[in-house]
Amino acid sequence: MRLSRLASGLAAVAVAGALGIGSANADYPTQSITLVVPFGAGGTNDIIGRILAEPLGERLGQSIVIDNRPGAGGRVGTLHASQQAPDGYTLTMSSSGTNAIGKLVHPDIDYEPLEDFTYIGLIAETPYVLAVRDDSEFESLDQLIETAEERPGELNFGTAGVGSATHLAAELFLDLAEVDMVHIPYDGSGPASAALLGGEVDFIFSSFPGVISHVQSGEARLLGVGTLERVPQVPDVPTMDEQGLEGYEATLWISIAGPAGIPDEIVEKLYAEITDIVENDEDTRNRFVENGAAPLTSERPEDVIDLVQQTMDRWGPIVERTVD
Fold first, then answer.
1. Which CATH number fits the domain that encloses residue 162?
2. DSSP assignment, residue 99?
3. CATH number at residue 45
4. In Å, how far from its chain's centre is CA 272?
5. Comparing 18 with 309, which gets the higher pLDDT?
6. At what angle are helices 303-322 and 165-177 packed, to 10 degrees?
7. Taking the mean position of all CA atoms in its chain, how far away is CA 276?
8. pLDDT score recorded for residue 23
9. What is the model's pLDDT at position 73?
10. Which of residues 189, 208, 243 is at a domain's end?
11. 195 and 90 in one domain?
12. What whole-number distance in Å separates Cα of residue 259 and Cα of residue 82?
């Protein structure tokens, strides 16, 4: 989805080193790097983060330590990451949910998405999906909606937390379908999926990687995907839009970020390595796809902050219309 400027990024690093610029950071990294995942184990951010961490650690010559910090729809871990030293040794999985939508739903959130982070680069995009257990009575989205119309306020659904992107994807569904259901929030897509399989909820909204393993094992089924075109991994599953929810589109972008103020030399080094992995490491790309995510990179590190603003602009009116 981009015309790579990887070569120019590498050149910038080389020039900086030749001029002796940022010599204090020339040996970065000299210790392990912590990658904060603001959701529990087994969710989308966790899965994608662990896939990326392995090759990135090998290239940097240091281990990447995953630090799961779930809570409040990803806001707990995201806030923690924003408060760490901007030395490149604490990074975080940032996304449209934590770094754009969260601020819209919770204006009093204790971090500013546009000011408190150094965005390094995009890594993946995935659709939101509506999933039910394999033994669910619901065989189609139409049947689910019809039942909700007949039994308003009786059906319930799980998401990755209040104010999470999955919550907003669900609210958009409820708004377009004009039905009333009960929201049950969890600390990430992993716990929400476990609740679905355990019979705690009738269905869930999840990003695709958070539920794809259960679909592949036959424990869960998808009734709809949030992209405007069908997803290659599940071509038989129709989109929400083609099932009558006109204009329904809900996808998740994921990036790597850190606290505001990380030196440019470190940003460029991380951007170059991460981007090259996502674009050219076939094993990583295949693992992303196998787990329901499409590899996605940004042309420059600073392009991610533009995407944050665009996401906030797109979802702002939807939040005002659907979230109390």
1. 3.40.190.10
2. I
3. 3.40.190.150
4. 21
5. 309
6. 40
7. 20
8. 56
9. 81
10. 243
11. no
12. 4
